[in-house]
Amino acid sequence: MTDWEVVIGLEIHAQLATKSKIFSGSATAYGAPPNSQASLVDLAYPGVLPVLNGEAVRMAVKFGLAIGAEVARRSVFARKNYFYPDLPKGYQISQYELPVVKQGKLAVMLEDGGVKTVGITRAHLEEDAGKSLHEGLAHASGIDLNRAGTPLLEIVSEPDMRSAKEAVAYMKKVHTLVRYLEICDGNMQEGSFRCDANVSVRPRGREKFGTRAEIKNLNSFRFVEKAIQYEVARQVELLESGGTVLQETRLYDSDKDETRSMRSKEEANDYRYFPDPDLLPVLIDEPFIDAVRATLPELPDDKAARFARDFGLSAYDAGVLSASRELGAYFEAVVTQLSATHASHGGTAQRNAPHAKLAANWVMGELSSALNRDNVAIEVSRVPPVQLSGLLARIVDETISGKIAKEVFEAMWSEGKSADAIIETKGLKQITDSGAIEGVIDAVIAANPKQLADYRSGKDKLFDFFVGQVMKATKGKANPTQLNDLLKAKLAGGA
User: What are the start-end ranges of the E strands in 160-257?
Assistant: First the structure.
């Protein structure tokens, strides 16, 4: 593989979060009975005319501004002609030569901490096709046209990615962005966010691209990575054995973990694009663009930079916590409440950063683990921000240790009670009385003379044994810092 370079470009299809379709008033809600959300326009009855949904245009412009792209003042819808059973008109209304958005870019954080800029050639509006149904129908296929006419924003990257992991990182970044902008719900299981991957390989150092294969309709990050990895291996093996890669469309079979040929890849002229005579050009003026720009939220990269700057977080932590608007809002609410509690007890602003790191660790750790385990969205977390900040405040003021805090959190998650109520009910307050801790240490040392002799003869690792014994005797309630300091002195022969 070191002799070959991988070249990847993605075409991401984001279903826009409009209430109605792009050219009709039919609803776009997911899960309705088949063909219950298809009007005469969606069914392509003779004489019906499409009417453009202005909200879809606004969302496309919002995306264009977020990626620093050029928003076309004039864009045109075209007819893309091809036959498919669930395409009622026999053509798809899309944009071709004059898309609404072009020439943008996204900075993508890679696993090694590096940043790669991926160019975005274009983002154009188009309608979705219907869906062919094969399961549960003996010797037949059904057609559901609920999805026909659903507005899509197709986001076409430059062939800038050089590995499956880079492609996944880029796709995740786009997924984060469209959800931040609230133009797509990003639900991959429902088909709201999917992609086609264009994959080719070339001898390392060669400028000319190899022949590409397009892998269609990938609807999970894991499938994108596995499909690309398989396709790269297939092409390399084919070329190294003297074969030729064909330009074709392929499907990924997740059960067999392989791609298989679907059809030869069409070129643009095969679709016979021409401007749709039923739709006027879309004209966008500066006041409209300015109005859309005013609705832009704080974008993921800006939020991550602010988290790093204001809270002293690492780039990694800041990136994770800004991966969704909901996660970022939750984290900030915890930090704000925790800082307010700290300040009310005489703390200063300069000391807030360590508590922000504590909050970050808990949000990314215990909270995220519980959310994932029980499949709960953070917006309806069983432990809201004010309760988590209350738990963290008890760690900060040393009422409980970090270890006991995990036990308290699980009780909060299952019982819905506050940290203080659980600590009080279960008697979990930390022992901070030095005399009480010393008494337990003395008892443990007296009960383990051999270990004491071994420790004093140089077996330093036995220190952890004594810590464990004291913690066991105090049911984990001894203040760890005090315990360590007192135990060191006692084991060294102190009073």
Answer: 193-203, 213-218, 248-253
d(CA 105, CA 181): 16
Three-class secondary structure of residue 94 per DSSP:
strand
The 3-state DSSP composition of the chain as helix, strand, coil percent (nearest 5) reads 40, 20, 40
Phi-psi region of 235 (alpha: psi -120 to 50; beta: other; left: phi over 0): alpha
Structure tokens at 78: 């075209």
Residues forming beta bridges with residue 162, ordered by sequence position: none
d(CA 351, CA 338): 11
pLDDT higher than threshold 80 for residue 424: yes
Query: Which own/partner pairs from 55-58 qualify as long-range (CB within 8 Å, at least 24 positions apart)?
Result: 55/16, 55/18, 55/19, 56/16, 56/18, 56/22, 56/125, 56/151, 56/153, 57/100, 57/125, 57/282, 57/284, 58/288, 58/292
> What would the two tokens of residue 259 be?
């791609």
Half-sphere exposure of 379 (CA within 13 A, CB side): 3
Please, what is the average pLDDT of the chain? 89
Task: Examine the pLDDT at 440 and tell me if it is beyond 90.
Answer: no
Q: Residue 71: in which H helix or E strand, if any?
A: strand 70-71
Residues near 110 by beta carbon (within 8 Å), at least 6 away in sequence: 116, 165, 166, 169
